[in-house]
Amino acid sequence: MDQARSTISKIFNGEPRSYTRFNLTQNMEGENSQVEMKLSSDMDEEAVGGNGVGEHHNHVRDPYAVHKPAGRTPRNLCFMVFASLLILIIGYLIGYLAHRRQEIAPRCAASSVPMEESITGTIVETGAAPLMDWSDVKSLLQGKLSDSLFETTFTEFASDSHQAGSDGDDILGNKVLKRFKAKGMQTWKDEHFVKLVAPGSEPNRVTYKGSDLGSLSGYLAYSKTGSAQGAVLHGNYGEVDDLNKLQDKNIALDGRVLLVKAGKIGFAEKVANAAKLNASAVLIYPDPADYTRVGGSTQLYGHVHLGSGDPYTPGFPSFNHTQFPPTQSSGLPTIVAQTITTDMASKITSNLGGHNAPSGWEHVGKLGADSDMVTVVVNNVLADKKITNVFGVIKGFVDPDRYVVLGAQRDAWGPGFASSTVGTSVLVELARAISDMVGNDGFRPRRSIVFASWSAGEYGSVGATEWLEGYLSSLNMKAFSYINLDRVVSGLKKPKASASPLMYGLIQSTLNEVRSRPGRSSPLPLQNFHNPLRLNDPIYPFITFSGIPSVSFRFTSGFEYPYFGTLQDTRARLDAATSNQVAPMAVLAARFAGHMALRLVHDHLLRLDVDRYNAEIRSHVVTINRKVQSLMRMQPQLLPNVLTVRWLMSASGSYSRASRSLSSDIMNSDLEDVEMCRSINDRIMRVERDFLSPYVSPREAPFRHILVGSGSHTLKGLSDHLDALEKSNPGADVDLFRNQFALATWTIQGCANTLAGDIWSMDNLI
Questions:
Q1: Beta 381-394 vs 302-303: how paired, if at all?
Q2: pLDDT-based confidence at 589, cuts 50/70/90?
């Protein structure tokens, strides 16, 4: 290089007035390098220390801006051209070698970074992480999960007593923490002080016609305490349709004690439905037709809070010394409720008089007469308990501040083998397997994976909900998915899943990958595996309160596992339900959850399908439009002509166009561009959150999601309000409906605007 510069100097009368240097401009995302030639003064030469390779510049000067000196000869011009070509070749070779070193260096650095460094929060890579082939990722995970390892973990985490807030619960939590630490994961605990319920010093009692039905150890947490008396009335499963059939028979529920079967809907929904119709109390029992293997004396346990989390700190977290005035959730029942055994229920049902049961009510004879008097006494007490959530994290290598959460409840009413032990075992085994993949096998997740062990799940996802309430702003736009591991194994025959529509496609593709069943030649069936999302589902607060796309799944035998919520949920009974295939089924469940989690942190784009909500929105819009048109024909005075569904339809169309626009942007984007990829993923992540109505209070209406949440602000709430208007229900209000209608419309439009991206890309026709 120096010899070339000397030649140039001689050409220009021996005076080194200037030299030509080359600048290599490299795109960090791997684009081709550009070589820039420009003239520099002696001052520039000093600044670069005489190197022929300069710094990166954002602007390009004219490389040919050289003033031709006077008196040049053809020979001098030939020398100048030759020297320029020589410098160009040398500079190109230097630039090429520098480019290759920069291209290779990040990958080598990433592969040599210890796990501890990534856990501390250091972003170990500035570009896109080198992708391991997805088939290799699947093979690695499968090779690290085995029946024998799960058997060892079952033995470690099985416990006869680990009720929320107890010593047994804390012992299991410390075992989980120890497992996480053993794999080098960053760990932490999250403590909450909550109000849980326990039986009082005086037992709960139920009498029928003055006769005590027997000893009660089972109870329903958060029931109203005290006593209630009334004539018993059978209400089948206590669903809204069941109670409507009673009203169709002109049977009033006012002051009656409603007797209902367990199943189909949660205990809290049964009690809430009865309270709306002014029943005085609710008794819940296991029907032998549904609980075929449960004995006649089996006691049931559960809760009746129509919500999740600590009902005495609604909408805010139960941290220690939280200085809030005394308050309580609107979801707490206003009537007493108690579970009874099958034998106790038969003493009542076999002696009932009154009307015959409506058609279709199986195993129900008479409904009950006014003389069939029942007294219910509930003496439960509230107790302040400290509960602990336990966490571990595997940090991502490109977007460590974006994470998927895998969680499982740790507590149970009794042994809780199917309800908590299996889920906790799947959680810690996945943490071990994925940690080994990262530490030993070179797997580099783009995003982080958080493993969470929750407490107080049996009381209504208390631990998980308190965490969501405590860190709602921190989780916003960071936690992009939640995978629940509770009750994942209860049988052999078929998979069931409830989820955000955004995750339907991921569930389907994952099931296609893990369809093989232990000991079976036929694969798992994939038909009708979606279950509707219900309020008692552990993922409900994640979707409807926090706007985090979530999935809850389980492998069943085609019927409900009868031992949930009892003290008989043991390993022996789960063995019987799975033909002694508990460990292989746990491996299958771990593969299913692991594949979803790894896919979400492996791919450039999040596997969340925003198009799925198009059908959900359109379905609601069609229903509302049909009911509005019907009401305007039948009772035009209620809804004046100024009310139109046009704007709701327009908002639905805006969302549809925005989702298509996103698909187009993805097709036309360079996904190796880290910032572009992150921008697209941010648009995808906002969808679930933006369906949370911003117009209602999280304290008064915590489940704000307008499509799958609950309350008058939802699209289903609008549809129900139209039904109430048509029936001239006293609670119906036209002005309130119109207000809710407008706010729901703007919520959908707001989601469409965000999905569209930049403000100039929005399609706002309203």
A1: unpaired
A2: very high
